[in-house]
Design brief:
Layout lengths: L2 H20 L3 H23 L6 H15 L2 H19 L4 H19 L4
Helix pairs in contact: 1-2, 1-5, 2-4, 2-5, 3-4, 4-5
Length: 117
């Protein structure tokens, strides 16, 4: 996939997350939110020539970006959006909690947008 395809996928998934949340499906909204964040990390990794094939690669990229920019919120937001992915398996967050998580996804994506070309 190219950098632009990852960016586009991130945008589409974030829109789908909002649609799922509006329909009351917290589980699917959470997973789409996680997917939007993951695709955005993959876009940044692709631009920088970083490995991005595993969950660990994405976490390492977020940590590297956090250190590089001295913006520790990048790492914290990655951890927060990762919890949305866990919700797919556990289905333990309600619609309000997932909505708050999607706010974190948007903040995370905005931060990564500022770092990409």
């Amino acid at each position: 996939m190219t950098t632009q395809k990852y960016r586009d996928a991130s945008q589409v998934l974030l829109q789908q997350a909002g649609d799922e949340l509006a329909a009351g499906d917290a589980r699917q909204a959470a997973e789409k939110g996680w997917g939007a964040a993951a695709q955005k990390v993959k876009a940044v990794c692709e631009e920088r020539g970083w490995r991005h094939v595993s969950h660990r690669d994405l976490r390492n990229a977020a940590k590297s970006l956090s250190r590089e920019t001295d913006d520790h919120e990048i790492r914290l937001l990655f951890d927060a959006v990762n919890k949305l992915h866990k919700n797919f398996y556990e289905d333990s967050y309600n619609v309000e909690e997932v909505g708050e998580g999607l706010d974190d996804v948007r903040r995370f994506i905005d931060k990564l947008d500022a770092l990409s070309g």
